Amino acid sequence: MKEKISLAMARRIALAAQGFADTRPNSTPDRRHLARVLARTGLLQIDSVSAVVRAHYMPLYSRLGPYPLALLDNAAVTRKRKVFEYWAHEASFLPVETYPLMRWRMERAERGEEMYNGLAKWGRERAAYIEDIYREVVQRGPIAASALEGQKGSGGWWGWSDAKHAFEWLFWAGRITTASRRGFERRYDLPERVLPPAILALPVPSPEDAHRELLRISARAHGVATAGDLRDYFRLSPGDIKGRIEELVDAGDLLPVRVEGWDKPAYLYKDARFPRKIEARALLAPFDPVVFERSRTERLFGFRYRIEIYTPVEKRQYGYYVLPFLLGERIVARIDLKADRPAGVLRVHAAYAEPGAPPKTAAELFEELKLMQGWLGLKRIEVTPAGDLGSALANIAAS
């Protein structure tokens, strides 16, 4: 085993770990393809912004190409579900087999130790009210918070009502879970009425064993990573991983290596693939595991990436909802994109090439945009010639 890995090889290892060494399926992706992606990524981060499509749908598209959105929707409902929702790398869909590995976080949350400080404080002050809401779920679930919340709260915690606070507290604590969604709104119920019985019957590991297993999943999803990368994937604290990585090294799950240009030690997953070439072409969501840890993205790809949704318009550098474009084994461009569903248009507001992007970047990006247009059921693509790649895209669109 090599003790030092080139940066180019580290990129290929990381992309292969995320499924980008495989060609997209020729047939319509099905539950087997979904399971394969989830086995690699370990999670799908959930986000409500629908400028293009909600972010949890995009990683499947980036790896599989056009697929029916119902594939993920159906995997998240009924007692035969394949995924459940909980806090991992932010709110996420997780394979149901991961449920016992998150019980330590739920138990800590119930003690007010593993949730947002404001919500923990509110929970301590309103314990009796939380129990009232829990009884409503027992009697009426599946139920949405909006069924009980009445008037929205004013200011404060995102303007949440008391009922919404209580539902979120109970969700963090694992006492309720998402049964389904109506639009983007969760409908909550008891875990024992939602999750497969076989999953509920699994033994709950100790926190130390759970942290070790979560680090294994993280290592498999990264291929090669620093300790910080491994910890961040499931938002583990430094205390949670103290001694755990060394144990995984001793067990042979992780192999210490140096990566060219990295100033911190790295760890290679024992079954990591070493592809000679990656021939990927994909638009990536801002919350795709390849890019959601921004410092890792910069180390691997030399690509500095920040989401500018909450940046005032006049201060944005690239745009409101900017997607990186992966071509081969490099991120070669970024594009400010919007799906204008009422008009049936995929709108390119701006496009920018990265230094050293190959001449074929605009043509390849437009091909990927056409694929996305069809996936989203839009009639056409309209390109504003903004950014150093915008004119080339606009010319292709007009030809």
UniProtKB/TrEMBL annotation:
Pfam families in UniProt: AlkZ-like (PF06224)
Domain of life (superkingdom): Bacteria
Protein name: Cytoplasmic protein
Species this protein is from: Mesorhizobium wenxiniae
